[in-house]
TrEMBL record:
Residues 44-242 form the SGNH hydrolase-type esterase domain. Pfam families: Lipase_GDSL_2. It comes from the Eukaryota. The lineage of its organism: Eukaryota, Fungi, Dikarya, Ascomycota, Pezizomycotina. It comes from Lasallia pustulata. This is SGNH hydrolase-type esterase domain-containing protein.
Amino acid sequence: MYALATNHKFQAVVAALGIALSLGTYTRVYRRVTTMGPYDQFLLFGDSITQFSCSQERGFAFTPALQDAYIRRLDVINRGFSGYNTSQALKALPEFMPTPAQARLRFMTVFFGANDACVPGGPTGQHVPLDQYMRNVQAIVRHPLVSSHTARLILITPPPFDEHQSGDGIRTAEHTKKYADACRQVGKELGVAVLDLWLVFMTKAGWKPGQPLAGSKAAERNKVLGELLHDGLHFSPMGYRILYDEVVRTIEREWPDQAVGNTGTVLPSWEAATGETA
């Protein structure tokens, strides 16, 4: 009986020693790779187009795709607020923006303008005058809570609007274009990377400057815009796929060291963690 108890005790000591050695190896490898804490964040700030980019009900979705691309590298955080214009966005920003002590922003997209571009005097009250829209975008980019992170910022222009799919008169293709142009101008003035999604979509639709504006009632119904925008404003899976591809391209062009394939993971691989490649 004594021999059996001694044997069990010996096995327990060996097991404990094995765990300790394994943890020691893991700790050494772990410390070579990273110091654990909250993951750096990739913050998506926008309106309903951003908010709805989490949903996979229709198919491909932007936010999950970006989360998958940066898994174990960055936390992709969706801060989309349906219906918000830039004036509302400015008020909302301090309510959710982490301090650098809480989490560090590595990337941030600012994607507003679709609601600001509602026609003046419309029933929704979402319209923001063009000059105020520009000042608001500047204020978001320069906000102390944003600048404290020294994050890599991407301004995304509002996309085209398709009047043929939504004839309520709250938005027009021509009016939306002005806000896309203004967003592009703000980015240039501030030296911030701009993803000109309006132009990307319009180019996909085959539109060229000088032609009647695709999406307007002055032009024929555009098949491609109908495929990119499922209701004239919000994105189909095809539209979100283009958004994802263009965000990835923007990062590769502006910050190649931050492209998905060039960033290290948080914590070591399982092989390294078990000491097999240590």
